[in-house]
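anyone seen this seq b4? input:
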Amino acid sequence: MPPPEQFRYAGVAEKGRPRHEKFDSFYIRHPFMDIGRRAKIFAPFDALTGFGDAVGAKQELYVERKLLSESEAAELDRKLDILHRMIPTLQDARDKQIQAALTYYTPCTDENSEHFMIRGKYVTVSGTVTELDTVFGRVTVGGITVELDDVADIDILTDDVF
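predicted toks r here
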């Protein structure tokens, strides 16, 4: 397609793309860039470092803490009693390797969130029960120690339950 008649840069357009010899002054100052390095020029730049993480944290859903009904609390107590009879001591816990899935409530710890220490989320962790301390009220499953007051449900995954 030819340029319009009164086109200001018609002469430049007719010359076409500039060609440089292998070692002329322009080539020496501006050598060709390999495709791998050239692709980095067009890579996205994160000017606001951490902003994406902050936005993602705001999208996390937090809920009110649910109070257990009498029947749910009784069922949880029954499961904890079964678990306590299975592993009365730390040595029994290490020997028997009881597997369990524990669901517990954890409050929001993001100080920049409007839900900070008001709402939280329910987390489920599964693994070996290494400690059940009824005196201090805590249970350790999969390396995570949880207060018994925060436990919403526990499922014993080992088959040899009495």
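DSSP finds six helices and five strands in the chain. The first strand starts at residue 99 and ends at 107. kinda curious what u guys think
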